[in-house]
Write a structure and sequence with these properties.
By secondary structure, this protein is α/β, with parallel strands linked by helices. It is built from twelve helices and 14 strands. The strands form four sheets. Strands 2-10-9-8-5-3-4 form a seven-stranded mixed sheet, with helices on both faces. Strands 11-14-13 form a three-stranded antiparallel sheet, covered by helices on one side. A two-stranded parallel ribbon has the order 1-12. β6 and β7 form a beta hairpin. α2 runs parallel beside α9 and α10 packs parallel to α12. The structure holds pyridoxal-5'-phosphate. Pyridoxal-5'-phosphate binds next to α3. The site of pyridoxal-5'-phosphate (PLP) has 14 residues, from α3.
Length: 358
Amino acid sequence: MTERLVLMNPGPVTTDPRVREALAGPDMCHREPEFGALLSRVRTKITAICGGTAGHTSVVLTGSGTSAVEAAIASVVPADGGLLTVDNGHYGQRMHDIATAYGIKSHRLELGWATPVDLAAVDRALADPSLTHVGLVQHETSSGMLNDVRAVAEIAHRHGRRLILDAVSSVGAEDLDLEHVDWLAGSANKCLEGAPGLAFVAGRRAEFERLGGGRGYYLDLHRHFRAQEAESPAFTPAVPAFYAFDVALDLALAEGVPARGARYRALAGRLRDGLEDLGLKLLLAPEHRAAGLTAVHLPDGVGYPELHDRLREAGFVVYAAQEHLAAEYFRLSTMGDMTAADIDRFLHTLGDVLRGAR
Ligand SMILES: *Cc1c(COP(=O)(O)O)cnc(C)c1O
């Protein structure tokens, strides 16, 4: 048996043993009917976990979460359209960078990291008729901030614009449904607790059918949609990751999104109380915190590399903050197959590190 690591990095997460065991499934050719059936089953479960109804569908990609965000942006914004990117952190900025890389007009509404979305500014920016789509991140994993999807969707739709949502670190745990989101990008290995290697885009079936002539080749959503509708993927998929995702989606559907969100929030609440008891400061005010991540100020006198290594020795993987937050903060995820006992043991270990006892 290898050591059980508690992954407190925001994906890939600690997985249920049944998900890991599924990875060792049989060799399979992706052009045989058994893969076609697996593909369709996984797509149906993804659409369900995203809150989709009969008019919705999804497309699975072999790639990390960014492949889904990129496929959505590159495939759905028309040649004469543009993207309003709501940027309050690293992943909002990434949506802008993706659009720019494809030569798509992107108006970056730069709000500042860990700053709540300014809804009036979104409304004003949409006075520009060339901005046909709005790009938003539900859970900005750079800070742990949960953005208000419904409020932004309501503004976008009032202006007749479509919403592209990066739900990579929220789908499966946060309140979400495809009535409000036109294009939802997600991945298998965060709140859905699958193995890394798969990502997906969900939306209305009619809109997938209308796509065509998107930018790019490998990430062209319409190409993938057409192929997957015929139960034969466009390119060689990560077959073992499909086995694992099939099982992980069953577990997610059985638990239910509200219950999973409540489980993560209970873990996060326990963690946050314990961190504050240890005298550590949290980045965000309580009302802005997502269930799956907590950004914490680094303790005085202990640098991130040392903190990481002491905790790693005790079986916990913590995660650095990004860019300008990295000097002062680190991040702790509460996504995945984690227990209250893991949190208690983590806090105990961290207490030892802070006292210089480790
Ligand atoms: C993890 C994450 C991504 C994708 O990152 P990958 O490394 O491509 O999996 C995108 N957006 C958000 C909000 C994320 O947390």
